[in-house]
Design brief:
- The complex is a heteropentamer of chains A (347), B (135), C (433), D (93) and E (642).
- With 135 residues, chain B is of the alpha/beta class.
- Chain B has five helices and four strands.
- Chain B has one domain: Molybdenum Cofactor Biosythetic Enzyme, Chain A, CATH 3.40.980.
- In chain B, strands 2-1-3-4 form a four-stranded parallel β-sheet, with helices on both faces.
- In chain B, helix 4 links the parallel strand 3 and strand 4.
- With 93 residues, chain D is an alpha+beta fold.
- A three-stranded antiparallel β-sheet of chain D has the order 1-3-2.
- In chain D, helix 2 crosses helix 4 and helix 3 crosses helix 4.
- With 642 residues, chain E is of the alpha/beta class.
- In chain E, helix 6 packs parallel to helix 7 and helix 6 packs parallel to helix 14.
- Chain E folds into five domains: 126 residues, Rossmann fold (3-Layer(aba) Sandwich), CATH 3.40.50; 176 residues, FAD/NAD(P)-binding domain (3-Layer(bba) Sandwich); 57 residues, no CATH class; 160 residues, FAD/NAD(P)-binding domain; 62 residues, Alpha-Beta Plaits (2-Layer Sandwich), CATH 3.30.70.3270.
- The chains are: A mainly alpha (347), B alpha/beta (135), C alpha/beta (433), D alpha+beta (93), E alpha/beta (642).
- At the C-E interface, strand 4, helix 2, helix 7 and helix 8 of C face helix 2, helix 3, helix 6, helix 7 and helix 12 of E.
- Strand 1 of chain A pairs parallel with strand 26 of chain E.
């Protein structure tokens, strides 16, 4: 027995869903989707659940994460109901549901709040640089320290509980029985999907998009590793320096292409980009670019200029670590991989 | 050919232009089969059939006569059923007088879409006639 | 050679000699008005004359069209111009229009042709027959189709090699390659637009593979395969001549689909598909016929019963729009769809697929009128100025519309619409007499 | 100008200065394929599948040309195979 | 008498016949008959070229008659009669043999049997042809006037169209006001005009025409004569209000009237007085007293001087040439308890709902309660699997969506839930469906064998469904109001239909002769049908059919003269002894007693005789025969069939 909640649609619209109510349930979206299978049929099912407002079913569903948004369903939707964008919005909605702090939802739904958050963090960074008297050495040192603390804190305090909540909503609450050994055996799934997005290869659109994304993930993770573990800005090791250059260059080249297509809004996937999507790629781009520049200025010994550049870099970094990673789009990196893992558990 | 025809009795059907003809036509349209020795003479209304015609048909060698009556659908008015019934009764008497088995005359209301019922009637009538006349 | 422009007067000009235009012309002619009926094809009868049987009564289309067509052809008050197109129409007075009509040369004098088909036999050329929707060939000297009216030969000049063989065998010397296009300037008092519709071009949906996969055909092609004058003399797949035994109908191809620019329902495809399914069950008793639909729209008199009858005969109805079709080795086709009843993605293999293509407007009609504005509706059909109370009136006083020129409709509705257009036209003619 | 009846094609041909290239090509192609198919059938009845193998052409093209030949009365349809799948075709002599 | 020479044509029907019947064998079998001059086979007998050939054959060989063996005479009897006429033969010399529906198709399982039967059928036709003499049609004067019965939109449009064609029109309405169903609606789909405005516009046009007589409160009670000249007796019930009634007086009269009866105009949602008018701009402007419910208390008379109880029922007589029926439809009344109808106070029908939204503003209130959640249950009384109404009512899907969208726009906080069986918003109406979806209306579709259920739980009305669109899950909606989407059914009161003997189809609506060839004609000559009395239709479709029917009625009468079938009964004066049996048998009063010389015999009124033949078997001396169905002909056919 299910009860309809017609108000749910309005809530979902705040996460960017457009016109999904127009769906007349022909199933064309499911039929054109190359990832949809007999066992896992979507997106129409999600469109239907959303139209009826069956929230519990949506929260328990992993299907939104199984979509990699090639846009075919939206391109061919006879009612122009945008199933692809609905799936995207559901991912934002679910992200907000998983987040115990509730901040994700706020940031997704409100651009002013997002901007305020960015300003607030900027103010914090400025307060810090003023407190250390604009000394580059101290800033660099603290920046490195901050990265390590932030990663640990965000991971333990925000992301881990969120993953547990996701597990609760999708496995525990719907009463799916999973033997413990299956948890262990299926682990591989988690990492494969986390690092490769293997599933997206099944998408019908060009494989280049998958490749770009793959490179970006590897580049980003390597850059993170280089700066945090190898202390790129502080390192004298030539290999580390070059590695950092290469990685940051990769990040910023790929993101340039991403930003470009988001701006043009030509492809189906980017027609309905939300601020959160744009923040994510722009900040990624800025991180790559500023990191590259900061190291370059260090190597060229343009240190006075570098102060300001580093403040910029630090601001981007802090905003990234405190806003985008825990509450923003970055989380899809985790949720998607876990969704694949959980899906494997459920199967 | 004679062999095939032996399997079916010769039946003369009086059908009506507006009501039962369409049903018989539709039986053909739907490829509902009945014996090919069923012949139809179409007239405006079943209450216009003269008993003498029916008797003549037996005389000439028809095994059976079937009146596909308009029933209550008759375009000429509701008295048709009663009148057709009356003339059938009259004919039955005349048949008895002449020693023709009255069961060789049958009547049923065939409405304009009663194709299936027409075909059923033909089949059972045919079986009956074969059993009683050609056995 | 100089062509004299011919001036002629009529009471009414009816553009399009399909079932709606024909009915309108007959109604007008029967009340004593002189009608000019213009059609761009070689024969009158429009699309209906090409059909096999018609729903829901399963009368053969020819049996209904031919008596109308011969009545039209013989009517003393009707003049027919085939292979003719209206170039422009100018309103020159309160109730007078001047229409410029151009007639393409047929290269055959219709009056002299006895349709003996000797020219057809003699012609060495073979091209795809447009009246069989390309399923089979025809000659360059040809009679359009067996129930065409006028039933006279024509020369397809684009494909003719001008060998002269046809001329040599013609017993009545009716073939004449010196024919020239003719231009007529016609004075008429009223105009009825009955230009009909086009069928959606299935090639605009590449995911269904029409044109690429040879065993994917349109419903109009199947209509020909089922018609008495059918191209293969039985139902075969055009890909390899196999008798199909697992046939699929894909509904809503190019209708109810905003992504291809046609959001409205074509209103006839459900029924013609059900009809064809019934005919196929008759023609190929062993065949499996499946109809993939979104909603079955059997709304007219006797339609729902016809749908139920098809179900009773064993036609499979599956709720779900086909997403993609892919071809397998050997020419069979895989259809991907979501079975809505189950909520599951499914794939089904069929050996022949029929795309039930929708109705799209016949565009360009508004351009006929040079000094008046013929309004179109938002879907590019001829606009109705008073849609509910006077459905046959257009934005131009004295110009009326009949049949599918205003939007999709079935044959009975087209005929009623033609009745309405003729009623308005007669009233207009009486008022302005 | 007085036109002799039955010889007007020549007039048009002269007026156009020849015949369209495509019409010529089309005729050539038809004659070629017609010959292939008729040769293939010369030895006896064949199904479309068998003709396709013999003439080495796409099967849909064979269907089109063969059916045209049936229409023109040059080829006629034989029996259907045991599976009720393919008909055979033979020369109409 | 000179021996007849006839031509026989046997049709292949493009294989429809020749696939099962050996047409060549049939041809050979009849070729030798003594009156058969030529026998041919043809691919399509009905084709233009064959028709041309036939004309040439007849003329060249001086044939006396033709037999065509082809499809059912329903399709082509007229075609070939016309061919005969074009060849200067009398059309009644033509005889038709049906070897398709009754031979090739019926016996496609037995080719030999089919061929044998076809031979006999053609032989019988040839036998009949021997007797098929030239007959002259009766020419009768046609009165250029049409009675249009029913003044709904279809009737009004038909009347207008006929009047424009200079025909006299009697527009007869049973109710007290014109406008029919459309007058009951405010907002209409696809236009900004309301139903009432549309009726007003048409009425204003009607009254401009001097050749239209509008009769309200009138019923046809008798019909004499036949096409061309039909004498109608019309009963006019008085309005009991003379002249014009001052609006203020009327208001007071209504106030003082003590009688309250359910208001049919609002589908019994409200009540009205015995003196009433449904809405201010209603036509005719004069109100009416519903005399059946009036208690004659006289209270209204005291406040309104125009009221006049002395008015008497009148019988009017009109002669017309043709009758156009536009009597419309009834809305299906659900059975007691059908989806909670009459058992739950929250359940109403679609027409009631439409009246409800028309009569309310700001908030939607029903029975004192504000309505937010509305459940619509589709196909109530249509597409029944275990009822009589198997047909689809065509217009209800669109009508419901339109009402739902209107309600949503007009009132705040409306949630629409559509419990349907597959939406049928055909054609451009699809856009309305798309719009309602975009506006957030929720559609739930039931399985064919699992219709939604309406249950009462305390004061709550719960609608449950196993929804196809949600993998068959059970979904429930707590509805403030359940709207039963009732379809169109034929008028329960069919007195006027029986009067004219109009046949009905399977669906009990009036039946046309042929859906495509003759869609607005009935088998009764001169009686055409228009609008929803023929089957469910929307407004534009009704108007199209009304205009078509008007064209048809007009074309029957436009020449001022028409021809009737000469296939009537004949009396052999030698044999007739006047017993009166035939007169008693004739349902059309076509038999008269006359004196011929010294003898009293029966005589046939040829214009009234319909040629049914009911008089023939009752004649003891066998003096009556039907032309073309005489004993001699029938017996010669029997000879040929054996």
């Amino acid at each position: 027995m299910a009860k309809i909640n017609p108000k749910f649609g309005k809530e979902l619209n705040k996460y960017g869903a457009v016109n999904f109510n127009a769906c007349y349930n022909c199933g064309n979206c499911t039929a054109v989707c190359s990832l949809s299978t007999e066992e896992d049929s979507f997106p129409r099912e999600m469109v239907r659940l959303s139209a009826l407002g069956l929230e519990d079913d949506i929260k328990a569903s992993l299907k939104p994460w199984e979509c990699y948004y090639c846009g075919e369903c939206s391109t061919h939707c006879p009612q122009e109901a945008n199933p692809g964008e609905l799936m995207m919005s559901l991912r934002r909605y679910l992200t907000a549901q998983y987040d115990w702090t509730g901040l994700s939802g706020l940031l997704y739904k409100s651009l002013p709040i997002s901007i305020a958050a960015f300003i607030l963090t900027f103010v914090g960074v400025m307060a810090f640089v003023i407190s250390v008297g604009f000394e580059l050495e101290k800033m660099l040192h603290f920046g490195h320290l901050f990265e390590m603390i932030a990663i640990g804190t965000v991971g333990l305090v925000i992301l881990l509980p969120n993953i547990i909540k996701m597990w609760y909503l999708t496995i525990l609450k719907p009463k799916v029985k999973v033997p413990f050994m299956k948890y262990v055996k299926s682990m591989g799934e988690l990492f494969i999907h986390m690092f490769t997005q293997k599933r997206a290869l099944g998408c019908d659109d060009n494989q280049f998009r998958w490749f770009e994304h793959f490179i970006l993930v590897i580049g980003y993770l390597s850059l993170l590793f280089t700066t945090v573990a190898l202390d790129w800005f502080g390192s004298e090791n030539l290999f580390v320096i070059i590695l950092g250059y290469v990685m940051s260059a990769i990040v910023f080249v790929v993101t340039v292409d991403f930003v470009g297509s988001r701006m043009k809004k030509q492809k189906e996937v980017s027609k309905h980009s939300q601020p959160s999507d744009i923040f994510f790629v722009v900040w990624l781009f800025l991180m790559g670019l500023t990191a590259f520049m900061v190291r370059l200025f260090i190597d060229l010994e343009i240190l006075e200029m570098n102060k300001w550049l580093y403040i910029f870099h630090l601001t981007v970094l802090v905003q990234w670590a405190l806003i985008i990673v825990p509450f923003g789009k970055w989380t899809h990196f985790l949720y998607r991989s876990f969704a694949m893992y959980f899906a494997k558990l459920k199967s | 050919m004679a062999d095939i025809n032996k399997k079916s009795a010769k039946i003369l059907v009086f059908s009506t232009e507006k009501i039962s003809d369409p049903a018989i036509d539709m039986a053909g349209l739907l490829k509902l089969h009945y014996p090919p020795t069923v012949y139809t003479i179409s007239i405006p209304c079943s209450s216009g059939i003269k008993p003498s015609w029916i008797l003549y048909a037996y005389e000439k060698g028809f095994d059976g006569v079937f009146i596909a009556a308009d029933g209550s659908d008759c375009v000429y008015g509701e008295s048709c059923t009663e009148k057709t019934g009356h003339l059938v009764g009259k004919t039955h008497n005349l048949m008895k007088e002449r020693g023709v088995e009255p069961a060789r005359l049958r009547m049923a209301a065939i409405c304009s879409v009663c194709s299936e019922s027409f075909v059923k009637q033909m089949r059972t009538f045919n079986e009956y006639l074969l059993k009683t006349l050609h056995a | 050679m100089e062509n004299p422009i011919k001036n002629i007067s009529y009471d009414a000009l009816v553009i399009g000699a399909g079932i709606a235009g024909g009915e309108t012309a007959l109604n007008l002619a029967n009340t004593g008005y002189k009608v000019l009926l213009v059609d761009k094809e070689l024969s009158v009868g429009g699309k209906m004359i090409m059909l096999s049987k018609v729903f829901p009564t399963l009368d053969c289309a020819a049996c209904i069209t031919t008596p109308k067509v011969s009545e039209i052809s013989r009517h003393p008050n009707i003049t027919i111009f085939t292979s003719s197109e209206v170039a422009n129409i100018r309103k020159v007075g309160d109730n007078e229009f001047v229409a410029k009509v151009t007639t393409k040369p047929r290269y055959v004098h219709i009056a002299d042709c006895t349709s003996c088909q000797l020219c057809e036999k003699a012609c060495p050329v073979n091209v795809r027959d447009q009246y069989q929707f390309g399923l089979v060939g025809r000659k360059a000297a040809f009679i359009p189709f067996s129930i065409a009216s006028p039933k006279a030969a024509a020369i397809d000049i684009d494909n003719c090699t001008l060998c002269g063989a046809c001329e040599r065998v013609c017993p009545t010397n009716c073939i004449d390659f010196t024919m020239q296009p003719e231009v007529f300037e016609l004075h008429v008092r009223t105009v009825v637009v009955a230009t009909g519709f086009n069928l959606f071009d299935a090639e605009k949906m590449p995911r269904y593979g029409y044109g690429k996969y040879k065993n994917v055909i349109t419903a109009m092609q199947m209509e020909r395969e089922l018609a008495p004058t059918r191209p293969f003399n039985t139902v075969l797949r055009p890909g390899d001549g196999k008798v199909p035994d697992k046939i699929a109908y894909v509904l809503c191809v190019g209708s109810r689909d905003a992504s291809v620019g046609n959001p409205i329902c074509s209103q006839i495809c459900c029924m013609y598909s059900i009809k064809q399914a019934q005919l196929l069950m008759g023609a190929l008793p062993m065949a499996d016929v499946t109809i993939y639909y979104i909603n079955i729209r059997s709304f007219g008199k006797g339609f729902e019963e016809f749908y139920q009858q098809a179900k009773g005969m064993g036609v499979n109805f599956v709720k779900g729009k086909i997403g993609r079709i892919t071809e397998k080795e050997g020419g069979n086709l895989m259809l991907r769809y979501e079975d809505i009843n189950e909520g599951k993605l499914q794939e089904a293999e069929h050996d022949m697929v029929i795309l039930s293509t929708g109705v799209v407007p016949n565009t360009g009609i508004d351009k006929f009128f040079v000094n008046e504005n013929l309004m179109l509706d938002q879907f590019n059909y001829v606009g109705q100025s008073d849609m509910l109370a006077s459905p046959a009136k257009t934005s131009i006083d004295g110009v009326f519309v009949a049949g599918t020129a205003t939007g999709p409709m079935d044959i009975p509705d087209s005929i009623l619409s033609a009745g309405a257009a003729s009623s308005e036209a007669i009233s207009y003619l009486i008022k302005h007499s | 100008m007085e036109v002799e009846k039955g010889k007007t094609a020549k007039i048009l041909r002269e007026k156009l200065g020849g015949i369209p290239e495509q019409a010529k090509e089309n005729l050539k192609e038809y004659n070629r394929i017609k010959k292939l198919i008729l040769e293939a059938l010369a030895d006896g009845e064949l199904t479309i599948k068998q003709i396709t193998e013999k003439v080495n052409m796409p099967s849909d093209e064979v269907v089109y040309y063969l059916m045209s030949l049936v229409k023109y009365g040059i080829v006629k349809t034989g029996d259907v195979d045991d599976m009720d799948e393919y008909y055979t075709y033979k020369l109409n002599k | 008498m000179k021996k007849k020479k006839i031509g026989v044509y046997i049709c292949h029907c493009g294989g429809n016949i020749s696939d099962y019947v050996d047409v060549e064998k049939v041809r050979q079998a009849v070729e030798g008959d003594d009156i058969v001059f030529l026998a041919k086979t043809t691919m399509f007998a009905c084709s233009d070229s064959n028709q041309r050939d036939m004309v040439e054959d007849i003329k060249a060989n001086d044939l006396d008659g033709v037999v065509v063996a082809s499809c059912s005479p329903k399709l082509h009897l007229l075609t070939f009669r016309n061919v005969s006429v074009r060849a200067d033969l009398n059309k009644y010399t033509y005889v038709h043999a049906n070897i398709r529906e009754q031979a090739s198709w019926a016996h496609s399982d037995n080719k030999m049997g089919a061929t044998e039967k076809a031979i006999h059928l053609v032989k019988a036709a040839i036998a009949k042809s021997r007797y098929a003499d030239a007959l002259e049609t009766n020419k009768i004067k046609a009165i250029k006037a049409v009675a249009v019965i029913g003044a709904g939109v279809a009737g009004m449009k038909a009347a207008l169209s006929l009047a424009e064609k200079e025909c006299d029109v009697i527009l007869i309405e049973k109710e007290s006001f014109v406008g029919g169903r459309v007058a009951q609606w405010d907002s209409l789909s696809t236009t900004t005009e309301t139903g009432k405005e549309m009726v007003k516009r048409l009425y204003n046009e009607l009254v401009k025409h001097e050749n239209i007589t509008i009769l309200t409160n009138c019923e046809v009670i008798e019909n004499k004569g036949s096409v061309g000249n039909m004498l109608l007796k019309i009963k006019k019930t008085p309005r009991y209000i003379g002249g014009t009634c001052h609006p203020e007086d009327l208001k007071r009269a209504i106030e003082v009237c003590p009688v309250e009866v359910p208001d049919e105009f609002n589908f019994r949602l409200t009540t009205r007085k015995a003196i009433y008018k449904n809405y201010p701009s209603e036509y005719p402007q004069t109100p009416v007293i519903d005399i059946k419910n009036c208690t004659r208390c006289g209270a209204c008379e005291k406040v309104c001087p125009a009221i006049d109880f002395s008015e008497k029922e009148e019988i009017l007589e009109f002669s017309v040439g043709s009758v156009l029926m536009a009597t419309g439809f009834d809305s299906y009344t659900p059975a007691y308890g059908e989806f909670g109808y009459a058992t739950s106070e929250n359940v109403i029908t679609l027409p009631q709902f439409k009246r409800l939204i028309d009569t309310q503003s700001d908030k939607l209130i029903y029975k004192g309660k504000e309505i937010n959640n509305i459940a619509y249950i589709y196909c109530v009384g249509s597409r029944q699997t275990d009822g009589e109404n198997t047909y689809c009512s065509r217009n209800c899907c669109t009508s419901t969506i339109h009402a739902a969208v209107t309600a949503k726009t007009k009132f705040t906080d409306i949630n629409n839930y559509h419990f349907n069986r597959g939406l049928r918003t055909y054609g451009k109406q699809e856009i309305l469906y798309a719009d309602s979806l975009s506006a957030g209306d929720i559609y739930l579709q039931s399985y064919e064998d699992g219709l939604p259920t309406v249950t009462l739980e305390g004061k709550k009305t719960i609608v449950k469904i196993n929804d196809i669109l949600t993998n068959g899950r059970e979904i429930e909606v707590e509805a403030d109001l359940v709207v039963l989407v009732t379809g169109m059914v034929p008028r329960a009161d069919n007195k006027v239909g029986s009067l004219f003997k109009i046949p009905k189809g399977r669906d009990k609506f009036y039946n046309e002769v042929h859906m495509k060839l003759r869609p607005v004609e009935t088998v009764i000559d001169g009686v055409t049908i228009a609008g929803a009395c023929q089957g469910p239709k929307n407004i534009a479709e009704s108007v199209n059919s009304a205009l078509s029917a008007a064209t048809k009625s007009y074309s029957i009468l436009s020449k001022g003269e028409l021809e009737t079938d000469p296939l009537v009964a004949t009396i052999d004066p030698e044999k007739c002894t006047w017993c009166g049996a035939c007169e008693a048998a004739c349902p059309f009063d076509a038999i008269l007693k006359i004196e011929k010389g010294t003898k009293v015999i029966a005589d046939i009124n040829n214009t009234v005789c319909k040629g049914c033949g009911m008089c023939a078997p009752v004649c003891e001396p066998d003096a009556v025969n039907l032309i073309a169905c005489s004993s001699a002909e029938i017996m010669s056919m029997i000879d040929a069939l054996v």
